[in-house]
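debug: dumping io for the single-chain case to check the tokenizer round-trip. Nothing else runs in this session.
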Amino acid sequence: MPDATKLPFGKAMTADEIFNYGQLDELKYLLKLAINERSIGLVSGQSGVGKTVGVHTVVSKLPTNKYSVVYLGRDQNGSNLIRHLAKGLGLPPARYRPHAWMQIAQHLSDNLIEQGKIPVVVVDEAHLLDDTTLEDLRLLTNADFDRASPLALILLGQLPLRTRLKAPGLEALSQRLRFRYALEGFTEEETAAYIKHHLCLAGICEDLFTQEAVKLIFLASAGLPREINTLCTLAMLKAQTASLSSIDAQLIRQILDQRELN
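debug: decoded output
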């Protein structure tokens, strides 16, 4: 087992180090349109498919003299979300929820008039929010008699959110979602390229995983990056413990069998 200069399948990566593939290029193009037009974008997909990473590749490169990014993650409670949003905008949060929304809306309207930095609000795990909070977020995009939006709003959520948006009560939000992208898992070829990419970033550029091992990882992970990361990390740890120079399908099967028992 070759020595890695850093953890090959860890989270500590810059935007330039993220594996690039066809879907990511499409997603980045769509997000840039949504941000440039101060519109609402929706990125949906299974847990672990790479929604947050994909959005990060775009917002991390926005010029800081023009844009102000506010990231809101995993806030199931609408009151918590508004407090974090107010803080991200540099506002002291109001005590009561209706006052807080009015405070934020006024701040965004004033910022639009003054031509300040464009807020880009990223709401992760948006499928966890109640309908009222989703509607309140939509209302923040209204300004100047609905002719302009004071911010760009990017919603990230799992697949059930797409179904919810078709239900009564969220029609207005659904109609505002001009930019939608459903992110899917890698193909088998992309899975192989993804594994090789991450190994090379860590200084391991030889074929550590056999072709059969990669195929089994693809089938077991359904091409989801987070699951690929987990399987590859477990395989590398097991191979290092056993002083193996390569990782084959038999080793991957052992890992999958152990996971089934746990």
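debug: round-trip ok. The beta strands are 40-44, 67-72, 118-123, 152-157, 179-182.
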